Model the fold of this input.
Amino acid sequence: MRQTLTYPNRPRVRASAAIAGAKEGAGPLGGDFDQVVQDELLGQDTWEQAESELSRRAIALCLKKGGLTPSALEALLCGDLLNQIIASGFAGRALGAPFLGLYGACSTVVEALVLGGALVDGGYRANCVCAASSHFCTAERQYRFPLELGNQRPPSAQWTATAAGAVLLDARRDKAMARLTHGTLGRVVDYQIADANHMGAAMAPAVADTLCAHLRDTGRSPADYGLIVTGDLGCIGRDILLELMKERGVPLEPGRLVDCGASLYNKEQDCHAGGSGCGCVASVLASHFLPMLADGRAARLLVLGSGAMLSTTSSQQGQSIPGLSYAVALEADT
Amino acid sequence: MRQTLTYPNRPRVRASAAIAGAKEGAGPLGGDFDQVVQDELLGQDTWEQAESELSRRAIALCLKKGGLTPSALEALLCGDLLNQIIASGFAGRALGAPFLGLYGACSTVVEALVLGGALVDGGYRANCVCAASSHFCTAERQYRFPLELGNQRPPSAQWTATAAGAVLLDARRDKAMARLTHGTLGRVVDYQIADANHMGAAMAPAVADTLCAHLRDTGRSPADYGLIVTGDLGCIGRDILLELMKERGVPLEPGRLVDCGASLYNKEQDCHAGGSGCGCVASVLASHFLPMLADGRAARLLVLGSGAMLSTTSSQQGQSIPGLSYAVALEADT
Done:
């Protein structure tokens, strides 16, 4: 299996938690989040500290739901979009757990699940939390424009979600929310997109690449999954993925392909192509899709994170924006 | 073992490679590097692309020395200091291998070895490359001041190494350079250092924390290691570590504690407290310490990466600089 890891012991998803901002709370999935915070500063002095607090709270809540004290947590695999992943770093400092900093852009929580799955499956860790966060205010000012500028956004733009999600994996055998069966690594794929407001187009080729690798490696077909869940391709990226998979001879059933970003906001919320950010797939997976496996509404899901390796430095130097995607296969713990 | 992973199959270090810049090549370890590049742009248009090329070349050379074609590489665990780890991302794009983006600041290559060790030991990957890079010109302008400013540097400042190092791990059983026996995860440790020119002080407490965890978890003492190798504490951070370990009742023998950063430059090279950067420990481990295990000059080494979670954003917001450290235990393949 060239890109796919198989977890014979099927690490259990013991708990998950998601906390989202007010705008996300007002969207179609608002009722699923464990908490919706109305104060975008979360009582902190800066948006960056607020994002870190969002991450910390989601992780702490996930541990609480899973009945684990912070001191019993054996690894925290964590990342975000900020330079030097400061939201995660400061959350890790507050929690005191063994920390593994990751950067897979918006696919980070799935990268964390692939690695955390191996650590738990192989007996290297008894448990771990996989988490990621994003915040509209921190990401927009870091990657695009000062918020005070009130820039108009093109229709292809996505809205960075203010949200954090955390998933607790463990090696226990009692019935859990779900089981992790496979993780597929992604390659850095570049279709030469250079527009920082067209992330779906930058990421869709990477998702297609990882999805094809997953199906090839496992011998499965798209029909083996009740749903194929993508991270934050948005409406445009989702359409591109459908096209790319058709071209590759593996057409997807549109009704069974759900994008977290495209599902996060109502049309009236003016978020154009949909949601994005590390916290998008992390929070929607934690609060919407994992519960579907837990209560029997779904038997098996494939979740593909989608990341755009966007950097203001490389963009200003004329470089394109490569994409990156990781996948995990999850099944009900029946 | 609370923070330490044990690798029962002892993944083999099949090959390692390091490429360094002219200044590093003129230092005491200059003769050890596989290549020394005189052109700090490596024929590229920008320093960032140059760092990415440095990383790509080191990884490609490591694969070549290990007799592995790039298409047979099963995972590239990689990171650097640049925002969104663009040096690694673009190197990953060029190499086409399954990519795992990491951020552990200057300890990244050791974080990669801890995770890569588990992936290979557990049979999830037949091989992987763990790599990291840094470049004086990219790091200084991102973290501190424009180079053109010609700022004076305080005595506690360290010099970001222009260097990249790569280590190939595999699951084969034939005699190799070395074997990986343990990996110890680090926690985010903060002693409230806020001076971006005093990294050794920010990192030393994290190194002490991880070192104590490693010794506690494994039941080993410092004397069980021929050498304890730290990443880039520099002269000042190294002295602080010696103090901290004495305070904790685990004094280290100064003659058996070697810091890669403190060893990288001659005193006349005006690098103050020593070298730093992801590429520092990566290149010195790959070109100086792993060969010592390979040719019998050392039987067992403990290598501790040291990272400072420095961010211009959080520093400007008045936050301190937390430290992070990972450790790997390596032994000769006798």
In short: The CA atoms of residues 107 and 305 of chain B lie 4 Å apart. The mean pLDDT of chain B is 96. The two ends of chain B are 26 Å apart (CA to CA).
